[in-house]
Amino acid sequence: MKIVILDGYTENPGDLSWDGFEKLGELTVYDRTPIEKIIERIGKAEAVIVNKTPINKVTIEACPNLQYIGVLATGYNVIDVSAAKAKKIVVCNIPTYGTAAVAQFAIALLLEVCHHVAHHSQAVYEGRWENNADWCFWDYPLIELSGKTMGIIGLGRIGQATGRVAKALGMKVIAYDEYASNAGAMIAEYVSLEELFAQSDVICLHCPLLPSTEGIINKVNIAKMKDGVIIINNSRGQLINEADLAEALNSGKVYAAGLDVVSTEPIQGNNPLLKVRNCIITPHISWAPKESRKRLMDIAVDNFAAFLGGNPINVVNK
Ligand code: NAD
Fold first, then answer.
1. What is the extent of the structural domain holding 108?
2. Choice from 94, 177, 295 to test ligand 1 binding pocket (greatest atom count within 8 A of CB)
3. What burial letters (b/e) apply to 89-112, b meaning 16+ CB within 10 Å?
4. Angle 99-115/157-168 helices, nearest 10 degrees?
5. Are 20 and 150 within one domain?
6. Which residue is catalytic, options 116, 206, 284, 293?
């Protein structure tokens, strides 16, 4: 079988191997594929693997040999799954691979807000400690988390992992989730969304992007939060109304935000959050430690091998 990977670079910038796929077929890997080249590059291939490159109905109809679409991610909104189903093309995703890494990154963003480690190290390298009148200095309020309350919106796999670390730091952990679970109740006290907004010193977003969660951090809900709250989001950018958050950061109502995701990625130059105080933004890297990407690669290969064996797994368009 011919296998084409259209945008392999972020999954494997060179520190992993595509061997697993190579053993299963005749492989071509592209780092990136512009929209206008998608059909040409799939050509007569039977299998296509993508991360964020869209596979729409037009592509599916223009590539009659396609039998398999593998997504190198959990979210598969880039694929027209019903068009694929109509042509009996199997679409598979990676349900989970980076829970520990994403939770760790949420905590990393929070600790950066609390200590500004990178800023203070930079200040030392710039000579400010050498020339300082006192034996130490700091440029931001330093924040101790023990005794403070973390409110987690979405207490699923990642939310629970973040909650566990927050508890280890001495935080009280509360959570709002549409579906409470016994596993979640072992980690956090379930509360209503209103209670979560009222009680949390730190709010972490770990829910999926759904119509019910889009823009959940907005002007109205920010008004219900404690003055000086910290907001952490490494779930999806559209959970936050960015203009409303920018205003709240500038007024100080929200003390700081740590964000690994924004509404349009890559970030646009006119994103209002690029001009505010106390907002840490990273380029969607929570998922990307090598250990997580290796797990993702292994599952992607297993998915394809299972498809070839006639018993596909992780199918999203049954
Ligand atoms: P999960 O399905 O295990 O957990 C999601 C939780 O959200 C579930 O408990 C679910 O009941 C809850 N939920 C659903 N609707 C809700 C609502 N309206 N309000 C509150 N809670 C609601 O998923 P997960 O593996 O923990 O992943 C969570 C999210 O993390 C993903 O949806 C994705 O957006 C994000 N993510 C980000 C990265 C990254 O690199 N930044 C990587 C992986 C995942």
1. 99-281
2. 177
3. bbbbbbeebbbbbbbbbbbbbbeb
4. 40
5. no
6. 284
Q: Does residue 318 fall inside a structural domain? A: no
Q: Is the CB of 289 under 6 A from ligand 1?
A: no
* Ligand 1 pocket member 260 (CB < 6 A): yes
pLDDT at 138: 98
For the segment 249-276, what is each residue's pLDDT rounded down to a tens digit?
999 999 999 999 999 999 999 999 999 9
Whether residues 138 and 49 fall in one domain? no
Element (H, E) at 22: helix 19-22
Give yes or no: 284 in active site: yes
Task: Kindly give the distance from the C-alpha atom of residue 158 to the centroid of ligand 1, in angstroms, as a whole number.
Answer: 7
Say which CATH number the domain at 10 has: 3.40.50.720
316 located within any domain: no
**Which of 233, 235, 260 for mutating ligand 1's site (highest number of atoms within 8 Å of CB)?**
235
Choosing from 116, 206, 236, 295, which is the catalytic residue? 236
Q: What is the phi/psi pair of residue 303, to 5°?
A: -55, -45
193-237 confidence digits (pLDDT tens): 999 999 999 999 999 999 999 999 999 999 999 999 999 999 999
Q: What is the value of pTM for the model shown?
A: 0.96
Q: What is the pLDDT of residues 93-143, one digit of tens each?
A: 999 999 999 999 999 999 999 999 999 999 999 999 999 999 999 999 999
The residue nearest atom 30 of ligand 1, judged by CA position, is 235
